[in-house]
Amino acid sequence: MSSSALGKPQMRGLLAKRLRFHIVGAVLVSLGVAAFYKFAVAEPRKKAYADFYRNYDSMKDFEEMRKAGIFQSAK
């Protein structure tokens, strides 16, 4: 067993090197998740709201709710 078979472990700057690696990885993962959320959740939600309010008639909806007896003050 010679001691030259194993190299010296890196001790100086080890934390900085590992932090740099993990911070870059965390930034990349967070950007990926943000892009996924934007295109998989936010954009379809905006489109669904736009489609709903394109044909929405609030007075017609109010009259239907009033006839159903939901409102107590509007007869």
From TrEMBL:
Signal peptide: none annotated. The keyword Mitochondrion applies. The chain crosses the membrane at residues 21-40. Keywords: Membrane, Mitochondrion, Mitochondrion inner membrane, Transmembrane, Transmembrane helix. Pathway: Energy metabolism; oxidative phosphorylation. Its main location: mitochondrion. One of its GO terms (cellular component) is respiratory chain complex IV. CDD domains: CcO_VIc (cd22901). PANTHER family: CYTOCHROME C OXIDASE SUBUNIT 6C. This is Cytochrome c oxidase subunit 6C. Component of the cytochrome c oxidase (complex IV, CIV), a multisubunit enzyme composed of 14 subunits. The complex is composed of a catalytic core of 3 subunits MT-CO1, MT-CO2 and MT-CO3, encoded in the mitochondrial DNA, and 11 supernumerary subunits COX4I, COX5A, COX5B, COX6A, COX6B, COX6C, COX7A, COX7B, COX7C, COX8 and NDUFA4, which are encoded in the nuclear genome. It comes from the Eukaryota. It is a single-pass membrane protein. It is found in: Mitochondrion inner membrane. Pfam families: COX6C. The keyword Membrane applies. The lineage of its organism: Eukaryota, Metazoa, Chordata, Craniata, Vertebrata. Component of the cytochrome c oxidase, the last enzyme in the mitochondrial electron transport chain which drives oxidative phosphorylation. The respiratory chain contains 3 multisubunit complexes succinate dehydrogenase (complex II, CII), ubiquinol-cytochrome c oxidoreductase (cytochrome b-c1 complex, complex III, CIII) and cytochrome c oxidase (complex IV, CIV), that cooperate to transfer electrons derived from NADH and succinate to molecular oxygen, creating an electrochemical gradient over the inner membrane that drives transmembrane transport and the ATP synthase. SUPFAM superfamilies: Mitochondrial cytochrome c oxidase subunit VIc. One of its GO terms (biological process) is mitochondrial electron transport, cytochrome c to oxygen. Belongs to the cytochrome c oxidase subunit 6c family.
